[in-house]
Write a structure and sequence with these properties.
Strand order of the largest sheet: 9-11-16-19-22-25-28-26-23-20-17-12
CATH topology: Pectate Lyase C-like
Number of domains: 1
Distance between the termini: 134 Å
Number of helices: 5
Number of strands: 35
Mean pLDDT: 83
Shape: globular
Length: about 475
């Protein structure tokens, strides 16, 4: 009796193991299914709208459980392609150097209480390819769209014709997991090239779980710098941006080529790597912008674990902008860095970095060449804490105004840094190799900053007073002559 029961239990466990193995291998099994968009009516002639043909192809693939969509060489006008719901998982889109032409339909409409005038249909984020799990307030990726891979496509929009659009992107994703975009180009985007969002329409769905986003070997060209970002990440539990290039992106009132911006309470953003990327002719506040929000239980105490390495920046306003809030400083070891920026080269930029209420940042082994420093523009503001520059080199600085650390800065450290041009205040900086020596000089720096700022404020007033006095004296002189 016991032997029979044991055999029965073994059979049940074996059946369970087989079932589990089946579901593990399910994406692999379906990946053998391949459909061609031309078999569903796509023309690829650059004139005919191929949106319906693409949608039929993708929907047919989903009915079979997933697989591969093939996009042959050609030019395909697309308005909005919809991947709505987690059933749109396990899709690979392989392009043979195909061009996706973002077709703009209709007129701009007001959105967000007239904050924006947009061509978008979804008034938080929209795109040519739109992925939306259509769920809200998720604590994990159970209901996310999983296992998406897009490669070999060239996304092209006409920003010179249609102009800037805050909400209309080329790829928009909300609620995706294991989401890969590789070997693609993004040109002339009105908003972003790729936006990983906290929602597409906050009145319907928001805070679906984004996880493990990978963007690699892609090129982003904004054409005329009248766009938002190349990549925006509002929500992603782990992301990698590797071997990507960014050119001619971002107007000056926007963040930068890459924007890491958790802007809602539940947005989980952490453990992001930006590596081996190049940035050229970038507007905005910084080529890479990171917003540090308070780590809370709601966002899994995220907003840290960022690594930027082996990147090249040229002709940008600043390589890095970090914006935090002064109320979120946490007790943590000085060497437990939230952001590490290392092994990179920066050339012909206006400032080495811009930090507002930032904390626990390490810049290591960076070469800064031809730093221009606009007169009296500070590199820090608000309350900054535990900022370390280590093994950095400054061969030449184009302006004498140099570093202005403004605000309440704590534990600012220059370690083993080299300032090669020893003129004016630079000779003092060249001697600073550790925190103690910098702190001894810190008081002088702040006095110098305030002294200059006071001059900027007082000089115009003194000039006006002086001119009034000269005018009065001149009038009196004329009266005496009469």
């Amino acid at each position: 009796m016991l032997k029979g029961a044991s055999l029965k239990n073994k059979a049940i466990h074996k059946k369970k193991r087989c079932k589990i193995l089946f579901f593990i291998l399910l994406p692999v099994l379906f990946s053998s299914i391949t459909l061609n968009v031309k078999d569903f009516g796509a023309k690829g002639n650059g004139i005919t709208d191929d949106t319906a043909a693409f949608q039929k192809c993708i929907d047919a693939l989903i009915s079979k459980g997933g697989g591969t969509v093939t996009v042959p060489l050609g030019k395909y006008p697309i308005t909005f392609l919809k991947f709505f719901g987690k059933e749109y998982s396990n899709i690979t889109i392989n392009g043979d150097n195909a061009h996706i032409l973002q077709r703009i339909s209709g007129n701009r409409k007001a959105a967000e209480n007239n904050r924006f005038q947009t061509f978008a249909q979804r008034h938080a984020a929209d795109g040519c390819f739109v992925f939306d799990a259509q769920v809200s307030r998720q604590i994990d990726d159970t209901h996310s769209i999983k296992n998406i891979k897009i490669s070999g496509l060239n996304f092209i929009s006409d920003v010179e014709r249609y102009g800037f659009d805050e909400l209309l992107h080329q790829i928009s994703a909300h609620g995706v997991s294991n989401f890969i975009v590789e070997n693609c180009t993004f040109t002339g985007f009105l908003g972003d090239g790729i936006a990983i969002n906290g929602g597409t329409d906050f009145s319907k769905f928001h805070d679906a779980y984004n996880k493990d986003v990978i963007i690699r070997n892609c090129r982003f060209d904004g054409v005329n710098k009248n766009n938002r970002q190349g990549i925006s990440i509002y929500y992603s539990d782990g992301f990698t941006i590797d071997r990507c290039s960014f050119r001619n992106t971002t107007r000056d009132d926007m963040p930068g080529a890459i924007d890491i911006e958790p802007d809602r309470g539940m947005n989980v953003v952490r453990n992001g790597v930006i590596s081996n990327c190049t940035f050229f002719n970038i507007g905005g506040m910084g080529a890479i912008c990171i917003n540090l929000k308070a780590g809370t239980q709601e966002n899994k105490f995220s907003n840290e674990g960022y690594l930027i390495e082996n990147c090249i920046f040229e002709k940008v306003n600043s390589p890095l902008m970090v914006n935090g809030i002064n109320s979120h400083k946490q007790d943590r070891d000085i060497n437990n860095h939230k952001i590490i920026f290392r092994n990179s080269r920066v050339k012909e930029v206006k400032t080495v970095f811009r930090l507002v209420n930032a904390d626990h940042l390490l810049l290591k082994n960076i070469i800064f060449e031809k730093i221009m420093f606009p007169m009296n523009r500070p590199v820090t503001a608000g309350e900054c804490e535990n900022i370390t520059l280590e093994d950095c080199t400054f061969p030449d600085i184009a302006s004498s105004s140099q570093f202005i650390f403004y605000g309440n800065v704590k534990n600012l450290s220059f370690q083993n840094c080299i300032f090669k041009e020893k003129k004016r205040e630079q000779i003092i900086f060249s001697k600073i190799t550790n925190t103690d020596k910098f702190r001894n000089f810190n008081t002088y720096i702040f006095w110098l900053v305030h002294y200059r700022l006071y001059l900027l404020l007082i000089l115009p007033t003194l000039l006006v007073i002086g001119l009034n006095m000269v005018t009065r004296v001149h009038k009196r002189h004329i009266k005496k002559q009469k």
